[in-house]
Amino acid sequence: xxxxxxxxxxxxxxxxxxxxxxxxxxxxxxxxxxxxxxxxxxxxxxxxxxxxxxxxxxxxxxxxxxxxxxxxxxxxxxxxxxxxxxxxxxxxxxxxxxxxxxxxxxxxxxxxxxxxxxxxxxxxxxxxxxxxxxxxxxxxxxxxxxxxxxxxxxxxxxxxxxxxxxxxxxxxxxxxxxxxxxxxxxxxxxxxxxxxxxxxxxxxxxxxxxxxxxxxxxxxxxxxxxxxxxxxxxxxxxxxxxxxxxxxxxxxxxxxxxxxxxxxxxxxxxxxxxxxxxxxxxxxxxxxxxxxxxxxxxxxxxxxxxxxxxxxxxxxxxxxxxxxxxxxxxxxxxxxxxxxxxxxxxxxxxxxxxxxxxxxxxxxxxxxxxxxxxxxxxxxxxxxxxxxxxxxxxxxxxxxxxxxxxxxxxxxxxxxxxxxxxxxxxxx
Length: 428
Fold this sequence. Notes:
The protein is α+β, with helices and mostly antiparallel strands. It has one domain (16-60, 110-278, 314-422): Up-down Bundle (Outer membrane efflux proteins (OEP)). Helix content is 65%, strand content 12%. It contains nine helices and six strands, in the order H-E-H-H-E-E-H-H-E-H-H-E-E-H-H. The longest helix is centred in the middle third of the chain and has 67 residues, at 112-178.
């Protein structure tokens, strides 16, 4: 089936037929090809690798070291370099070879390793939430572009309908003029209306072409590729509940969770700075070989426990810790500001959405009234009643009402898409 679909697509392209693209297909292409999402995916990978690397301080460290020593201005023998040489090694050799191996492990560091690992994990989660936020922005952009293109397409159809109606009125008026029923001025007025309608059609076609270019850019199609928005523009049925939407957004919105993860990371930075006030305890198992041979045999095994505690190293430890606390406090204030902004955006988006729904209802009613008025005036004009000015104005009002209805419909869908974005309503 996939092969057949691909063949059909190639055939359509070669024949010059425009592809029709639905909203779901547009979203799929936009998400798969978005450079912003690909960039963030790489940032997430980098954060994941950084997190994995923080396991190293918990693991033992194994080191080997080899060295060669040559005395240039001393008559000391190799026995002067090593206390491991045997009696037979004592001589006049000025060469010394050393080989050492050690295994070390840190026992205690005041929480520094834990803070770095936990902070790195919070950073990873923060970048993952940012990816979700960017994805939501991409989806809104493609929905807005798609509904605008689809609305522009329907506006072209409405204006073509208006042109056809104006053309029929012109032909009817011209026929009545030839029969001597109407005046020349009526014909001229009908012709002006017809020409104006034709100009409106051309303008709408250019607007639709521009809207398609926006859509093609977001779904990574070339300018020369032919495409067409396909779908049914209907009135949204979603009814917004501010309290429920706000509660869900405060709990799940990526921008808020991102800031919460940032606070967690900064708390771990504070713990890391605080660890400088604690001692360090390290253990080490070491074997050393040194004598005058290239493969030394003189061997010494040792086990060490190192205890390090800085008594005084300036004022940096204290002020670094205070600075980390201030960063945590600042991040908490940013979180509260983000929550406030989210709540404000939601209530404003709801009001805009409800206004567009009200406009849809009003323009639907206006279309019904304008259709009734136009049909009545056209019927009267055909039987010799009424005047051309009233008929042309009625036709213009009907065309405007139909166009405004389409505009209200696509704006309502765009407003709903924006509400889904700011309230983080998941796509089903």
